[in-house]
Amino acid sequence: MTLLAIITGIVGLILSGGFIRDIYTQLGEVLIHSQSGHLQIAKADYFEHGARSPEKYLINAPELFGKTIAATPGVNDVMGRLYFSGLINNGHSDMPIVGEGVDPAREARLGSSMRISEGRPLNDKDAHGAMIGQGLAHALNLKPKDWMNLVVNTPDGALNSLEFQVIGVFQTFSRDYDARAVRIPLADAQELLATAGVNTLVVSLKSTGDTERVASQLASKAAAKGLEVKTWLDLNDFYSKVVDMYDVQYGVLRIIIVLMVLLSVVNSVNMSVFERVGEFGTMMALGNRRRRVFELIVLENTIIGLAGAILGVVIGIVLALLISAIGIPMPPPPNSDLPYIAHISIITSVVISAFMVGLFSTIVAALIPATRVYGIPVVDALRENV
């Protein structure tokens, strides 16, 4: 019973912790590889005040600083983006949009989590081609090969319009973004806005774990040019809130599992020890000191706890691998239409903490009955044999 309680608790901790961590990882990678990239570099104050007037925060000659970024260890690619807002017209009605001028080839490599629901991605040969969000496509009844007009104000205040052909329809993690988003080649966006600059330099890294290191390396270089660096965590406030919410939920779940393990182990250890009080009385009557009996009870349960913890870790890891191989179909998260397949990540810190919970809960559970046996008179203990 003790082993079963320990193993069940450890397996529960490993699976629940790995499941939550997989949610964090997948959500972060989706945000990185569909919208923000790992880092974004822009003019100072752009991220706070540039949404309404992006034309006031243009980086001129972005390729110069782009070479410095690309030479930084850990950087995979650098691409410019030019943001604009305006109107889209399908020949019958208008809708406000948020547009991005992007480097098609580089964005295709970065945007591995962007789903193309119709048509195909942009490429470098698509002059006056456009990709639109799925919500926008449904609202205006646009599909690949249809034509549309974009109307925007240039930084000088003039009105400019260009005709674009829909190349593809995309879906990202955010339904709100898909309801307004238009992506066109960067050269076309610069022609539309009559500028040669970009608003941000988007940095793709070889590993998400290098984000803070690369950001700190680029921060001083960027500040010298009047630029600032933001990580994907800074740009996606939604992610931090989701992590905080799940951390609280997992914390409560972990406390419940630990209490269940502790109470189950206490109950089974108590039963085991008090069924043997007569045996311990005989040992003390034969000359064994009370301290020796106390140590024996704790040692026995330490061995049981160690065995249960090892078995629990092994079973938990095996189950995590099996479940991950099969996958857990998950419904779309809030504000998204994209379902995903969840897995159970094997996290070293979670495995170690689960192991320690199983081991120490058994030791702690043994202290209570061991203390009671330590204090029981030998004569009373011997009566338990009758």
Offer a few descriptive terms:
386 residues, 2 domains, alpha+beta, six-stranded mixed barrel, two-stranded antiparallel sheet, 21% strand
Secondary-structure-derived class = alpha+beta
**Principal-axis shape:** elongated
Tally of helical segments: 14
Quick check: average pLDDT? 88
Count of domain modules: 2
Indicate the percent of residues in helices.
40-55%
Largest sheet: 6 strands, mixed, barrel
Read across the widest sheet, the strand sequence of neighbours is 2-3-8-5-7-6
Total number of β-strand segments? 12
Order of helices and strands: HEHHEEHEEHEEHEHEHEHHHHEEHH
Radius of gyration: 31 Å
Strand content: 15-25%
Distance between the termini: 26 Å
Could you explain how this protein is built, in words?
The chain folds into 2 domains: 2-27 and 239-383, no CATH class; 45-225, no CATH class. The radius of gyration is 31 Å and the shape is elongated. It has helices spanning 2-36, 46-49, 62-70, 104-110, 134-140, 175-178, 186-193, 211-224, 232-235, 237-274, 277-285, 290-326, 348-375, 378-383; strands at 39-43, 75-89, 94-102, 115-119, 129-133, 147-153, 159-171, 181-185, 200-205, 227-231, 328-330, 340-342. 54% of the residues lie in helices and 21% in strands. The strands form 2 sheets. Strands 2-3-8-5-7-6 form a 6-stranded mixed barrel, surrounded by 4 helices. It has a two-stranded antiparallel ribbon with strand order 11-12. The chain has 14 helices and 12 strands. With 386 residues, the chain is an alpha+beta fold. The model has no long low-confidence stretch (mean pLDDT 88).
